[in-house]
């Protein structure tokens, strides 16, 4: 029986997600035994500066991919939104399991609703997209970046460093702590990041056994939706830094894609809904429409501002 070494970040959420994937495989009674290997990543080691300063997209997977490359692990479980638009040719996403809730959650100190916060109240988020969306909807609120694992962010909120924080609903559900959520934020005002709520199982392209194993837990609808989101984002910003939202789902076989691009100050937000039968057509329609409305210049301005922070 082959022993499969599974790589994961060390945070409680990452470990929980990875164990859930292993259990899905065990439930299929596959002829493997599994062992976890904990890997410290660049993004986890440096939590004193904003994500854009640490290195942006890829900072949570580089060390894990090194372990894959060196055959120290056989596959890794990632939050899909942590992955860059393109992987190195030696790796592949062998499975995208059924997506969890795609929405953002607002957690208020003392459970005060977002719309009832006083002027100048501080919302903690590490996402340029979330910060811009908050500023657009509630221009009298302030945002400050926050780093750390889910439990650490909630503790910072309880310690009074913030009046509220924004986290992904999916992570809170996987950790079994949805009782902390004050509000589920609607996707029409808070379009989530591409891939939010989904996991990506990455392995080496050459490892046919692992690919065959992992495809058993792939969800085709989730895969199509997320590939559409990622294709759209890549057409606008291949570095995936700017405040871009993208959420797709399948409706009776048709792909429906909701998108948004925001200025950093939240004063301008462009949105588009695109529908169609193919990933390429749906993503290109939305991207081209928003580009016609000035999305490219907004993206470039946002990236310049983020680089200065």
Provide a short characterization of the protein structure.
By secondary structure, the chain is an alpha/beta fold. It is 36% helix and 24% strand.
Give an account of the 3D structure.
By secondary structure, this protein is α/β, with parallel strands linked by helices. It folds into 3 domains: 2-97 and 198-218, Periplasmic binding protein-like II (D-Maltodextrin-Binding Protein, domain 2), CATH 3.40.190.10; 104-185, D-Maltodextrin-Binding Protein, domain 2; 228-308, Porphobilinogen deaminase, C-terminal domain (Double Stranded RNA Binding Domain, 2-Layer Sandwich). Helix content is 36%, strand content 24%. It contains 11 helices and 13 strands. The chain has helices at residues 12-27, 42-45, 51-54, 62-69, 128-137, 150-158, 169-175, 208-214, 220-236, 279-292, 295-308, and strands spanning 2-8, 32-38, 75-79, 91-95, 104-108, 122-124, 142-144, 164-168, 183-185, 199-204, 244-251, 254-262, 269-276. The protein has a 5-stranded mixed beta sheet with strand order 2-1-3-10-4, sandwiched between helices. Strands 7-6-8-5-9 form a 5-stranded mixed beta sheet, with helices on both faces. It is globular and about 60 Å long. Residues 49-55 have low confidence and may be disordered.
């Amino acid at each position: 029986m082959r022993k499969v070494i599974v790589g994961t970040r060390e945070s409680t959420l990452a470990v929980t997600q990875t164990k859930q994937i292993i259990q899905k495989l065990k439930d299929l009674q596959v002829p493997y035994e599994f062992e976890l290997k904990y890997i410290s990543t660049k993004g986890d080691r440096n939590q004193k500066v904003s994500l854009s300063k640490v290195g942006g997209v890829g900072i949570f997977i580089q060390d894990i991919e090194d372990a894959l490359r060196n055959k120290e692990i056989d596959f890794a479980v990632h939050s899909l939104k942590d992955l860059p638009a393109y992987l190195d040719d030696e790796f592949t996403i062998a499975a995208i399991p059924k997506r969890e809730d795609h929405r953002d959650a607002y957690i208020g100190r003392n459970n005060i609703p977002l719309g009832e916060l006083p002027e100048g109240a501080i919302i903690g988020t590490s996402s340029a997209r979330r910060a811009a969306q908050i500023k657009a909807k509630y221009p009298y609120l302030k945002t400050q970046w926050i780093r750390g694992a889910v439990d650490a962010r909630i503790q910072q909120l309880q310690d009074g460093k913030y009046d509220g924080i924004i986290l992904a609903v999916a992570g809170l559900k996987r950790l079994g702590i949805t009782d902390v959520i004050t509000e589920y934020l609607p996707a029409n005002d808070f379009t989530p990041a591409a891939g939010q709520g989904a996991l990506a199982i990455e392995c080496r392209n050459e490892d046919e056994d692992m690919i065959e194993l992992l495809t058993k837990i792939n969800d085709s609808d989730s895969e199509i939706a997320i590939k559409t989101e990622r294709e759209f984002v890549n057409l606008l910003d291949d570095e995936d830094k700017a405040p871009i939202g993208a959420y797709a789902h399948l409706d009776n076989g048709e792909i429906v894609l909701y998108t948004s691009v925001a200025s950093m100050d939240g004063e301008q937000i462009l949105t588009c809904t695109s529908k169609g039968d193919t990933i390429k057509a749906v993503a290109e329609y939305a991207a081209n429409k928003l580009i016609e409305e000035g999305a490219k210049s907004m993206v470039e301005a946002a990236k310049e501002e983020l680089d200065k922070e």
